[in-house]
Write a structure and sequence with these properties.
With about 230 residues, the protein is an alpha+beta fold. It has helices at about 5-10, 20-35, 80-85, 120-155, 155-160, 185-190, 195-215, and strands spanning about 40-45, 50-60, 65-70, 90-95, 105-110. The protein has a 5-stranded antiparallel sheet with strand order 3-2-1-5-4, with helices on both faces.
């Protein structure tokens, strides 16, 4: 018996997807081709990163486009994928694995007033989730490794390491800028503030300074204080 296109792809090719964006877009496209009435999809992965807690990719069936949403570690946990899907139609969502950090795969049906997926369509999505477990585990492991390398080496150096540039003595010329920023009255503040609260304040300060750099496509290669 021939498997539906989506299941055959999950078995044979999905593990080699270059990233979550391509995985979600291709799976969504194949589910549409298999006849599932979808308006959109969402894939959420946990990230071992000091600033970013989760990354969510959002796919819109109408255009085939995928956008990304970030959940920061300091923010309260919010189901970005579920919230976005709920704006499109009835939602079906499942965590792929027993751990709270396992991937979450969700789909939105067409907003036709039904309020929920038909039982047969929901059963097909559950089957897709089971078949997606192995390729998503491989994809999540690759993304976790990339996130760790980026967090501690920087985006540029992490990309070089993942590409196999491990030999000593190699390097490259980059454009860089020096950013000098000061936390006003830090000395006086540190004398009257509990150490744990002072560390929390410094963390929040760094998030804002580094966040401004990241927002415009930059990266912080080195951070030095005067302590």
């Amino acid at each position: 018996m021939d498997l539906p296109s989506s299941l055959a792809w999950l078995i044979d090719e999905a593990a080699a997807s270059p990233g979550p964006e391509r995985f979600l877009a291709e799976l969504g496209r194949r589910l549409l081709a298999d006849g599932l009435p979808l308006a959109g999809g969402a894939l959420t992965l946990s990230v071992p990163h000091p600033i970013i807690a989760r990354r969510t990719w959002l796919w819109r069936a109408e255009s085939g486009t995928v956008i990304e949403a970030l959940a920061f570690a300091a923010a309260p946990p919010v189901g970005a994928g579920r919230e976005w899907l709920a704006g499109l139609g009835p939602v079906w969502e499942e965590r792929i694995g027993p751990s709270p950090d396992d991937p979450i795969l969700g789909w939105a049906g067409l907003a036709d007033g039904a309020g929920a997926f038909a039982p047969g369509d929901a059963a097909r999505l559950r089957e897709v989730a089971r078949f997606a477990a192995a390729p998503l585990a491989a994809l999540a492991a690759r993304e976790a490794r990339a996130a760790l390398l980026e967090a501690y080496l920087g985006r540029r150096s992490a990309a070089r390491v993942q590409a196999g540039a491990l030999a000593r003595g190699t390097g490259e010329i980059i454009r860089a800028a020096l950013l000098c920023a000061d936390l006003r009255d830090f000395t006086a503040l540190s004398e009257v503030t509990e150490p744990y609260a002072m560390i929390a304040a410094l963390d929040a300060y760094f998030d804002r300074v580094a966040g401004a750099v990241h927002a415009f496509g930059g990266e912080v290669l080195k951070f030095m204080g005067d302590g």
